[in-house]
Amino acid sequence: MDSYEEILLGMGSFGSAYDKENFQMVMDICRWNRHLKSFDVECEVFAKIPKDITNLQLLEELTVQFNALKGPIPLFIFNMSSLASMGFKGNSLNADTIPNEIGDLHNLEVLSLSMNKLNGLIPSTIFNSSTIRRMSFTDNMLFGRPPSNIGLGGSKARGVLFVNQ
To answer: GO cellular component terms (predicted)?
Structure first.
């Protein structure tokens, strides 16, 4: 194969016979930096996001749903400037706040952080984005209100879900 544009990994492909902390296939995939645009990992494939994923310079979609991710969202994710869609739904991500660096993703259109253990306020930087269209923060422990000017100032936000515990 000369071109890889999309990778979908799931429990059905691997069973449980691999080390979630040191997932070698992901490292190999991260060498496809000139080709891969969509990376979708679901159903307990790994417990942490390898830093090598930042080698995927053309990556537009990063979806790591229903895995065993814990701790804060890794800051190196916010250096992936080509991301248009980012989803970490259904993990155990926890932090006192969502990092302000999330506003540095200037191409981000879709953000899903639902069903985690995130605390604190949603950073205002995300609401200043002119590209964001959909955001979902449901089933976390976030508090506060969205800014009253949401959807103004160039934002394309159409769908924002804030229902939290």
So the answer is: membrane
